[in-house]
Amino acid sequence: MPTNGLHQVLKIQFGLLNDTDRYLTAESFGFKVNASAPSLKRKQMWVLEPDPGQGAAVLFRSSHLGRYLSAQEDGRVACEAERPGRDCRFLVLPQPDGRWVLRSEPHGRFFGGTEDQLSCFATAISPTELWTVHLAIHPQAHLLSVSRRRYVHLCLREDELAADSNTPWGVDALITLTFQNRRYGLRACDGRYLRSDGRLVREPEARARYTLEFKAGKLAFKDCDGRYLAPAGPAATLRAGRSTGPGKDELFDLEESHPQVVLVAANHRYLSVRQGVNVSASQDEELHHETFLMQVDQETKKCTFYSSTGGYWTLVAHGGIQATAAQVSANTMFEMEWRGRRVALKASNGRYVCMKKNGQLAATSDSVGEDEEFILKLINRPILVLRGLDGFVRHRRGSNQLDTNRSVYDVFHLSFSDGAYHIRGADRGQGLWFTSRHPALPSPPGPPLRPIPLGWAG
């Protein structure tokens, strides 16, 4: 399995939402905690860590402060411990409706409250001691079975999700977590939801929603009957089994899902590595050899392209482009220039990548013409969740506008047409106008929107 940043297990960050829809917050001043924030920002993000003593207890570390939540014997709570001590140990008690109850392990009391009146002194569970787990990570990811070491993907022939793929390649490996009624759904790339009996359904019905549980940094999905999802049988079909507790078979990792793209050259053929190590415009259909995983360096905004055969595009002698590099280096980085509905790629030698007469690529051009332009198509986001610096994008209720600072997200539909895209909401009759560098704008009045180029801001 390739490394070097390709298979990155997501650090599970989340918010804890109380019964009055306010988030548990860690303040810098006095290391106090409260439940006053109406939205999920950095101060409201927490990381769950296993107890170093390998017990059932867990630790809650603030992403904002880097310190641990603690509860003293008299019920006072704070987030000031730089290292986890005895008072930082909590037991997570999942409830039937998907919410959590947090109990201090050493003191046996329950944690809850409202606003700035939080304590861990309750002897019984009331609504103020119930917390909803709200994931703060991007919800579109790859799902890896811990026991089988295989990725979950959509098998259209069997009409199921199965954990039997060696690599998360192509659109069928995309899994979208949806949040509704305090539970999560697993949505396949075709928009259908996984029901606990293994069937895929169009609507997020009760049996297609799950409670999240965490064990040793891994995820488990519990259905409404208290059973856990696991790969079953030789086909590794994902369904709820008989287990009422998460063992190794019921545990999953979430891995970051990078953009996967295909590129079309001026000869109307796909760039491919099907015929060897040279990247060439030689194929008439888009399969795995024509699909490349694209990563954007956040500092330089340059891109790398990784092939299904296990190598990065790299600049070689005489300007050739081959998919042979095992590691990222200066020669594997390409500067992407958006030219309307086309892109041009500049290699590390300062020259543009062009298509030669035999279809092979070479970075030998000093300017951009038809042979230096490519259509770039994003293939693993047929459904799309958008997140900016301030939060997720969601449709404002009762309005035709979009907010870009929401804690809860909408799932949009992405369709491609000649180098540009339509982005549509749940109501397929509404087109939405987006660019990659500006906030989402409301759909203008009049006829349906024309497609627009969709770039990456990095």
UniProtKB/TrEMBL annotation:
GO MF entry, a single one: actin filament binding
Disordered: annotated span: 438-458
Subcellular location: Cytoplasm, Cytoskeleton
Record has Cytoplasm as a keyword: yes
Superkingdom to which the source organism belongs: Eukaryota
Keywords from the UniProt entry: Actin-binding, Cytoplasm, Cytoskeleton
Recorded GO CC terms: actin cytoskeleton; cytoplasm
Principal cellular location given in the protein's record: cytoplasm
Pfam families with a match to the protein in the record: Fascin (PF06268)
Residue stretches of biased makeup (Pro residues): 441-451
Any Gene Ontology biological process: cell migration
Fascin-like domain segment(s): 21-133, 142-254, 266-376
Gene3D superfamilies: 2.80.10.50
Family according to the record: Belongs to the fascin family.
Name of the featured protein: Fascin
Protein source organism: Suricata suricatta
